[in-house]
Write a structure and sequence with these properties.
The chain is α/β, with parallel strands linked by helices. The protein folds into 2 domains: 1-51, no CATH class; 52-332, TIM Barrel (Alpha-Beta Barrel), CATH 3.20.20.150. It has helices at residues 36-43, 65-74, 97-110, 130-150, 167-184, 208-217, 230-235, 243-256, 291-299, 323-332, and strands at residues 55-58, 79-82, 115-118, 154-157, 191-195, 224-229, 262-266, 269-270, 281-282, 308-310. Helix 2 runs parallel beside helix 3. The chain is globular. The chain starts with 35 loop residues before the first helix and ends with a helix. Bound molecules: zinc ion (ZN) and manganese (II) ion (MN) (2 copies). Zinc ion binds next to loops. Zinc ion is lined by residues 118, 158, 195.
Amino acid sequence: MASAQVKASPHFFDVTPTTGWPAGPVAVTYCGDTTYEQAAANAQEVEMTMPTPAFGAHRSIAGGFEHAFTAGVGVGCDCLQIFVKNQRQWRAPQLCDRHVAAYKAGARQTGLTPVLAHASYLLNLASPDTATRRKSVHAMVDELERCEALGVSALIFHPGAHLGSGIKSGIKRVARSLDQVHERCPGYRTLILLETTAGQGTAVGHRFEQLAAIIDHVSASGRLGVCLDTCHLFAAGYDFRKPEDYAAMVDELGSVIGLSNVKCIHLNDSKRLLGSRVDRHEHIGKGKIGKRGFVHFVNDKRFAHVPMIIETPKGKDGRGTDLDKVNLKRLRALIR
Ligand code: ZN
Ligand code: MN
Ligand code: MN
């Protein structure tokens, strides 16, 4: 957080629509105040600072949850994204009290918030193959149970691939699968976020309309949200490098999905061209999007309460600095 006096509410999933400042449909809590007038009154005493988003990175849980938290703090994260199990395997050992305690200690000691989880890339809730889809629903339930036990705010997943059966039937299968997951996880607080995809192969979810259609078909749609991914958006054909194009895209997002449904933004540059439909992440400012595309997101007050997470290539630069630290610094430098 950029400011100790004024910061986005950590309870960003609870914010309710209002009018007034900041422009847009979402109220941010300032020092516990909920209206601009109250915040303005307080601001006479403290120097008013515009809220900035919480920035974070996806970090590995190898060696235990505590390592992800420690590494996150080390590279300058405010918030964090993790896997809640080995994402390359369908089965994983059950969470035990020891794991939960390690997670909670990590969260408490580092103060990273919110924490979001990314679901395994193996699961395909859109699959026309009944066995695969069933297995995927089962795995998604397992992931959501882990999230709930840990206190993870949201579980992000890629809607899946229709594998030639068509976008429409893919959309319906994802929705039916999510209904089944919800039925098996009654009363859970962890939200499920649908991530925008690059549209590689037969991937579902590369147009806002497709995500809106999935949400529309799900009974407990209030338990869902959306995660934007800048690399995926760009690869899918959404250009947001020029201010006017960014404005048009966010307008479209607002009317098709609703800006209050955006609960996370993945900030990744793209190795591939606009509309390439190929998902290859690049370091911030070093890809085909370039810094100017990210300037809009990090300075958009409508997204000031939305956690922004990098999933850029891992490693170290020439001086031995973690590349996540480099990318996060680069993003913060874009704030005006
Ligand atoms: Zn993803
Ligand atoms: Mn992503
Ligand atoms: Mn990706």
